[in-house]
Amino acid sequence: MLDQLRTIVVERLRFDTTRAAEMTLATTLPKGVEGSLGLDSLDFIELSVAMEERFGFIIDEGQDLSEEFHSLDSLSRFILAKMGQA
Fold first, then answer.
1. How far apart are CA 78 and CA 29, in angstroms?
2. What is the pLDDT of residue 86?
3. How far is CA 21 from the centre of its chain?
4. CB–CB of 48/42 below 8 Å?
5. Fold for the domain defined by 2-82
6. Could you tell me if 11 and 47 are in contact, meaning their C-beta atoms sit under 8 angstroms apart?
7. Hey, CA dihedral for 47, 48, 53, 54, is it positive or negative?
8. pLDDT tens readout for residues 48-71
9. What's the DSSP call for residue 27?
10. CB 71 within 8 A of CB 27
11. 9-13, 40-44, 57-61, 68-72, range with the lowest pLDDT
12. Around Cβ 84, how many Cβ atoms within 10 Å?
């Protein structure tokens, strides 16, 4: 799952492949968190769309997903749960 998320970050958010290779499950996502990827609200929208396309599920836009989108680990667990594999 981590490799698939790295690919999305590189392809859709245009991150450098070297930086993507350094990402671990502990990597945090939101802007303003020290050591995070520094994603802003538009990045999260793009990430959500890419996840829907790649993994084949719909994300409820009205749902507060700040915990699920906090780190690559929480995001991986969210994706697996949505896919029914968790």
1. 14
2. 47
3. 14
4. no
5. 1.10.1200
6. no
7. positive
8. 999 999 999 999 889 999 999 999
9. -
10. yes
11. 57-61
12. 7
